[in-house]
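Weekly puzzle thread! Below is a chain. First person to post its structure in token form gets bragging rights.
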Amino acid sequence: MYRDDVHQLALVPLAERSWRLCDRSVARSDAASIVAYVELLDSGLYEVVWVSIGFGVARYPSLEGMFRAAVQMVERSRGAGSLKPEPIPHRPPAHA
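Winning reply:
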């Protein structure tokens, strides 16, 4: 199940009631392309385990709500800029 209308996010089936939420703007070989794991619970809620744009677990009553939250999180993470650590001037890298 792919969703072209919501950012570059796509649901990729893993099993009958579970999916991987992927960001297709990131290379498949990059672990950051996996945004979350999604599972449809017996209660009818979608449980989402965020992995690359946030951490934690959330539940949503619909896939649409989950997609809206994911788009906001993707936009927020891209707006934060690079998370590359600042070098420590008095301590050169071990391989230097």
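Puzzle host: Confirmed. Bonus trivia for everyone else. The mean pLDDT is 82.
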